[in-house]
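FW: tagging you since you asked about this chain on Friday. Here's the raw sequence from the shared folder, copied in full. Didn't touch anything.
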Amino acid sequence: MFQPLFPRYRDAIARYPLASDASARKPAALPDELLISRDGPLSIYYAPFEYPNPHAKVVLLGITPGLTQADKALRIARTEIEAGSAEQDILRQAREGAAFSGTMREPLIAMLDSVGLNGYLGINSCASLFGEHREWLQSLSSIVFPTFVNGKNYGGSSPTLTGHPALRELMTSHLVPMLDILQDAVIVPLGPKPEAAIGWVAAHHGVRPPRVLRGMPHPSGSNAERIAYFLGRKPRENLSNKTNPDKYDQAKSLMKALLKS
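HL: got it, structure written out here
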């Protein structure tokens, strides 16, 4: 059964610092009173990312929330606590307010539309998942809580997602039950590491979402060439040896077929 950790950290969130100019604030680290566990260079902190959206039709699955995203969610949660909001409303507002944003949103929308997710959902463009139809979207992480290695955002390796007991425990306690709740949604892993997390959940816990769009390039700037090829904006003959066009052709074809089934 899914057991949110929010009650344990509510008082610490109520003390979380607010900046007069939040957009300019760049926290160096999260406070120790939000620490869940630490093992050598690996540290896991609490932030309010525990709300499973019962209306979600699409799940964007990443690796772990970063420091900036965690800071934003914590500030929203503190404001909601001060307003006297109920626990579920606090978690929902924190999730929605810190949802997938920034420069990665545009290429992500373009890729989702290119495989036909907009048509599957009956909308003109997946851009509306961040606007008019935002209640259909769930942003989720393989490791639900912000995780750091040597104080830096965890990137899914050293250790691997399944290579450390604390990470496996969090996937078991939070990712598994949340995916179980979201069984009817289309799962979009953002890169190979979240894909590996889905595979681990299926193998060890039997949770197998029927529609997982595997093989989409992560929508970050470092994948600009792969994204351009995936979207048909760069021809095969102009690709560097870092991009395997056959891999993305096959993945795109499978995604389209899955969304038509």
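FW: The chain is about 40% helix and 10% strand.
HL: agreed, and Residues 22-260 form a domain with the Uracil-DNA Glycosylase, subunit E fold (CATH 3.40.470).
FW: great, closing this out.
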